Each structure stands twice: as structure tokens, then as C-alpha cells.
Amino acid sequence: MSPSTSSPTPLDGDHRDADTLRVGVIGLGYAGTTHLESFRSLPGIEVVALAGKERERLELLSAQHGIAHTYADGDELIARDDLDIVSIATPNVLHDRLAVTALEGGKHVFCEKPLAVTAEGAQAMIDAATRAGRVLDAAFNHRRRADVQWVADYLRTEGIGRIYHARASWKRRSGIPGLRSWFTSLELAGGGALIDLGPHVIDTLLHLLGEPRVRTVSAVTHGELGRAGYGAMDRVDQMTSGADFGVEDLAAALLRLEDGASVALEISWAGHTVDDEDISIELLGVDGGVRLFIPRYKGEDTIRVFRDRAGTALTLAPDVRVAGGEHPVVIAEFVETVRAQREGRPVRDEAEHHRRLLERVRIIDACYRSAAQGQEVVV
Ligand SMILES: NC(=O)c1ccc[n+]([C@@H]2O[C@H](COP(=O)([O-])OP(=O)(O)OC[C@H]3O[C@@H](n4cnc5c(N)ncnc54)[C@H](O)[C@@H]3O)[C@@H](O)[C@H]2O)c1
Which has fewest Cβ within 10 Å: 15, 71, 114, 126? Predict the structure, then answer.
């Protein structure tokens, strides 16, 4: 197997040590670079291979991080027989195929969100992981924010009574990631704002609600702004043709949960409105409420708790600070799961973990189906 782009002299990473996990990272953008740096920050890990299409960036990153083997194509990296882990940070549509190939080749897989663009794709990944007895995980880093964890702990210890409704959103005023990028190609991304930002919101919400099953969804999608040439994150693109814009810039849905609770979901990349960029999760319980409001990735003063004490309305504002760096935490957890699995001391119920991974993709899948059919659908 010869590297397809460059072949630097093999570095120390080529000397195998039984306890060291050897990693190959696919993708050189924000996500791939974060994976690379996160793996490199952990003990007992060597990133030995890197793949991506941008030749200069590939050379730069491999030189910076001392990576011996570089490839222009992810399949060539996966074909190496000396990797324990493959980390996938490519356009969405490639996730399932690359992951299945890696899992079938005996590698553990860490994959960016969305896990796959369809529920069938996600199921194929899960089946391959189960057959191979390898770990499959997704990059749900937002859920590891300290404020999300604080709310999860508060719900567990104090509780707010039965949660009967939630409002969950991620909204931007001008945040389409390039009007003509792969993010706005239905073929490469599998959808728009919903499949891009929705996985984090849905993951955080389901985590806080205790992993309920969603029974039905009724969704709408709109792509008017992008098609009209508005709303690009990079304002240089503003008002250029949106002719190639093939996805939605806004999705809204009503989710009915199996316990009778409901969720109003709204995800949008762009809108002529005051919102600049904010993530919001509001939980309404019989005995209290919680609102997590994160404008522009703010790291403090993001939580409000609402209670009623003998007829007096109380609002609490806990002092919780978000340190950042959630990707390394997720990747460290993934590595720990891989080690535990190799040593025969499982740290989690894999079947339940797979169910949760699949549920997130099935909800997004159902939203797109509902929007296309113009009616409520069963998840
Ligand atoms: N978890 C998060 O917070 C987060 C943040 C940003 C992006 N993401 C996800 O990460 C993924 C990548 O997003 P990005 O913003 O880094 O995109 P990007 O366009 O910046 O990078 C994509 C990379 O994939 C590479 N690539 C494409 N096809 C390939 C192939 N066949 N073989 C090898 N490499 C290939 C490209 O060369 C590029 O380096 C997406 O799925 C996105 O949803 C997640």
C-alpha cells in the first residue's frame, strides 16, 4: 500500500507497541483537525495516518503533527492493516460507507455527526460494529458542555416534575456555511440546517429528557433564503446566486414522545430576524422549568431555573462556567471505551448505545419524510 500523496520517512509512530492505539484521521477541515488534535493530546495514542483532498493542508498538518502516512482518499487510509481506530470527519454522505468499510476491516470508528444521512445508513454502521465487535461512536460534543451537564444533574437530583413540553432550537441570522459548499448540496450533505445543527440539539434534548422514544413528527422545511442568495455565513457570498442551493435553511417540527410529552423544534441557518446565533433548550415541567440559552456559544450565565414556592415565582441563575474543549472529552471517552472493550471489561451497554445513536438519525429522517409528505409521520 503506497501513500497516494506524499510518503515522508516513517517516524517513531511506526514502531508498534501493543498498548498504543494507532489512529487514522479522515478529513482536514475544522472537524478533522479537532479530531487530530484531540487524539494527539491523549496518552497511549499515535496518529499515524491522515487523509484529505487539500494537498497543502495535508502536508502542513502531517508535518506539524509528525504523521508518517498521508492519503488523498479515505478508502486508501482505511485499507491499512495496522490501524486500531479510524476517525471520520468528511462530508456527511461519506460517513456510513467509510465507517462500514473500516469496521469490517476490524477498526473502531469515531464518526462526526450526523452519524449517517439516512436511518438505513446508520443501521448498516451499527450492524457492522456489532458483527465486528468494534466500538462505534459519534461526535456529540455539545452535550458535554458544563451547563448541559449541570442541567442533567439538576433534573436528576432536584427534578422539575413531569416534563410535558420542551422548546428546542438553534437559530442563526446569517449562518449558512457557504451558499455553494458541500453543506448546501443535498447529494453531499443529505439535507441542510436540520441535518447540520439538528443532531446536537436533538442529542442534548434526548439526553436531558432521559432518552425517551419519539413516536411521531410533523415537520416543515424551507429553503427560501438560501435560494434567494441571502444568509451566507461568509458575507462575501451575500446576494450571489443561490441557484445551487439544494437544501433547507430552516426546519421546524412538532415531536410527540411516547410518554405524551411534546417538543417544538426549530433549526435554522438564516432568517431576517434579530437572532444572531443562539442555541436554546427550554424544559417545562409540572413543578418547575429550566432554560438553557446559549447566545454565540457563550460560556457563562446560560442557565435559568424557574420554580414556584408557595405561590411565589423564583428564578435561579446558577454560576456555571463552560471551559470549552468538549471534542477532546468525547474522544477521550471513546478511547476509554475502546480500551475497555479490548481488555474485556465493557463500560456500557452497547445495544442501548446503538439504539440511542440510531434514534437521533431516525428523528431527522422522519422530519425530512414528514416535510416531503406534508403530514405527520411515525418515526
Ligand atoms: N461536532 C461538531 O461540532 C462539528 C463541527 C463541524 C463539523 N462537523 C461535522 O464534521 C464533518 C466535516 O465537517 P467540516 O466542517 O470539517 O468540513 P470541511 O469541508 O471543512 O472538511 C471536510 C474534509 O473531508 C475531506 N474529504 C472529502 N472527501 C474525502 C474522501 N473521499 N477521502 C478523504 N477525505 C475526504 C475534505 O478533503 C476535507 O478535508 C461533517 O460531517 C460535519 O457535520 C461537526
Answer: 15
Ligand 1 centre distance from Cα of residue 96 (Å): 13
Cα gap 8→1, rounded to integer Å: 14
Which residues of the chain fall below pLDDT 70? 1-17, 235-243
CATH 3.30.360.10 residue spans of the chain: 142-324+360-378
| 70 in contact with ligand 1, CB cutoff 6 A | no
Atom of ligand 1 minimally distant from the CA of 51:
33
Tell whether omega for the bond before 114 is within 30 degrees of 0, i.e. cis.
yes
Q: What's the 95 CA to ligand 1 centre distance in angstroms?
A: 10
Give the pLDDT score at 15.
53
Q: Give yes or no for residue 90 CB within 6 A of ligand 1.
A: yes
pLDDT computed for residue 72 by the predictor: 97
User: What stretch(es) of the chain map to CATH 3.40.50.720?
Assistant: 12-140+328-344
User: Is the beta carbon of 30 within 6 A of some atom in ligand 1?
Assistant: yes
Q: What pLDDT was estimated at residue 236?
A: 52
Give residue 242's pLDDT.
Answer: 56
Distance (Å) from CA 346 to ligand 1 centroid: 30
Dump pLDDT digits (tens) for 283-333. 999 999 999 999 999 999 999 999 999 999 999 999 999 988 789 999 999
- Homologous superfamily assigned to 142-324+360-378: Dihydrodipicolinate Reductase; domain 2 (3.30.360.10)
Q: Looking at domain 12-140+328-344, which of 3.30.499.10, 1.20.140.150, 3.40.50.720, 3.30.420.140 is its CATH number? A: 3.40.50.720
The helix (H) or strand (E) run that includes residue 21 is strand 21-26
**Cα 79 to averaged position of ligand 1 atoms, centre (Å):** 20
Specify whether the CB–CB gap between 151 and 328 falls below 8 A: no
